């Protein structure tokens, strides 16, 4: 059983694969979603925030998994997967008008680029248009970053 945010639970359905890591062994274990429970419950986060959570019931695909009730694991529920996609760190994104944008290194100067995003996680997003593989983006752009500013360093 894995509890997840209710806002994430709407993307989870039976038979979706799960990767289980950091359970104590070296290999990654696999499982599939059996059921997403229909009722949410409130749990207080480590930051003291009330969160609505939902239990996801899964079955391991391997036999004789050496885990029991209450064991700590990290589970990744695979709600979307594709090969050969261009990804960008979320930390390189910002809103410009109604679009998403990023700052890129354009011949040693900062250029602003509108981009079209596909699926995203908490850490990265798929770039569907507006950026090509190999272009350098600026992570965590601060107020000193603006279009045309010379890029110094890396």
Polypeptide structure, described:
With 154 residues, this protein is mostly beta strands. The protein has two domains: 76 residues, Elongation Factor Tu (Ef-tu), domain 3 (Beta Barrel); 73 residues, conserved putative lor/sdh protein from methanococcus maripaludis s2 fold (Beta Barrel). Helices cover 3% and strands 44% of the residues. The protein contains one helix and eleven strands. The strands form two sheets. Strands 1, 2, 3, 4, 5 and 6 form a six-stranded antiparallel beta sheet that branches. A five-stranded antiparallel beta sheet has the order 7-11-10-9-8, with no helix packed on it. Strand 10 and strand 11 form a beta hairpin. The longest helix has 4 residues. The termini are far apart.
Major sheet:
6 strands, antiparallel
pLDDT below 50 for ≥5 consecutive residues: which ranges?
A: none
The proportion of residues forming helix, as a percent range, comes to under 10%
* Multimer state: single chain
Element-by-element helix/strand order: EHEEEEEEEEEE
Rg, rounded, reads 20 Å
Could you give the distance between the termini?
45 Å
Task: Assign the CATH architecture of the largest domain.
Answer: Beta Barrel
Structural class: mainly beta
The CATH class of the largest domain is identified as Mainly Beta
Overall pLDDT confidence: 92
What's the number of helices?
1
Strand content: 35-45%
Number of strands: 11
- Domain count: the total is 2
CATH topology of the largest domain: Elongation Factor Tu (Ef-tu), domain 3
Shape: elongated
């Amino acid at each position: 059983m894995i509890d997840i945010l209710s806002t994430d639970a709407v993307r989870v359905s039976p038979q979706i694969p799960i990767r289980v890591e950091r359970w104590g062994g070296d290999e990654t274990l696999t499982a599939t979603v059996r059921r997403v429970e229909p009722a949410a419950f409130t749990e207080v986060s480590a930051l003291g925030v009330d969160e609505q959570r939902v239990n996801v019931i899964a079955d391991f695909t391997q036999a004789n998994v050496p885990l029991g009730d209450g064991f700590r694991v990290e589970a990744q529920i695979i709600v979307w997967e594709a090969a050969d996609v261009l990804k960008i760190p979320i930390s390189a994104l910002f809103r410009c008008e109604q679009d998403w944008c990023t700052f890129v290194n354009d011949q040693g100067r900062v250029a602003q680029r509108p981009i079209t995003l596909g699926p995203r996680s908490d850490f990265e997003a798929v770039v569907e248009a507006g950026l090509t593989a190999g272009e350098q983006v600026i992570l965590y752009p601060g107020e000193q970053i603006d279009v045309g500013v010379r890029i110094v360093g890396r």
